[in-house]
Amino acid sequence: MKDQFIIIKGARENNLKNISVSIPRKKITVFTGVSGSGKTSLVFDTIAAESQRLLNETYNSFIRHRLQHYGKPDVDALENLSVAIIVDQKRIEGNARSTVGTITDIYSLLRLIFSRIGKPFVGYSNAFSFNNPQGMCPYCEGLGKVSTIDFDKLIDKTNH
């Protein structure tokens, strides 16, 4: 039961004052709060930094020396941490088809997986893209929503 949570004890990065929290694992978790409450310090400077540091330790020294160096965060204990996917706070640029999946490149990997494990009817993974006319939904054209006009609301059909 305890391994179902990322456990942080005594986090003191930046404005955090000895914070201890349990965060559910294998769940999408959103951190919200007022400005200055420590969201960024907890997520980026504690969790993401330690996750990236642990991931970097799995590479050989040749590669490790060429990666960005992450120091150990100021925390008493960080337990049950796995690799974290962190979506930065910057404004998402792009078009109406831009999503968290496309910005983090997870979408490309998922598209490749589906192209390989799905029943093959096309030979390349781009056909599984909502940006490709062959892969996009014919109704929403890959935008995820359909706009229609209700003519009954536009035209008054009563006899006056």
Write a brief caption for the model:
The protein has 160 residues and is α+β, with helices and mostly antiparallel strands. The chain has helices at residues 39-56, 61-64, 100-103, 106-117, 151-154; strands at 5-11, 19-24, 77-79. The chain has a three-stranded antiparallel sheet with strand order 2-1-3, with helices on one face.
Blueprint of the fold:
Elements: E1 5-11, E2 19-24, H1 39-56, H2 61-64, E3 77-79, H3 100-103, H4 106-117, H5 151-154
Antiparallel strand pairs: 1-2, 1-3
How would you characterize this protein structure?
The structure is a single chain. With 160 residues, the protein is of the alpha+beta class. The protein has two domains: 78 residues, P-loop containing nucleotide triphosphate hydrolases (Rossmann fold); 66 residues, no CATH class. It has five helices and three strands; from the N terminus they run E-E-H-H-E-H-H-H. It has a three-stranded antiparallel beta sheet, covered by helices on one side. The chain is extended and about 75 Å long. The chain starts with a strand and ends in a 6-residue tail after the last helix.
Task: List how many beta strands DSSP finds.
Answer: 3
Q: Runs with pLDDT <50, length 5+? A: none
Major beta-sheet overview: 3 strands, antiparallel
**What fraction, in percent, of the residue positions are helical?**
25-40%
CATH superfamily name of the largest domain?
Answer: P-loop containing nucleotide triphosphate hydrolases
Strand content: 5-15%
Structural class: alpha+beta
Number of spatially distinct domains = 2
Backbone CA Rg: 23 Å
Shape: extended
CATH architecture of the largest domain: 3-Layer(aba) Sandwich
- Under CATH, the topology of the largest domain is which? Rossmann fold
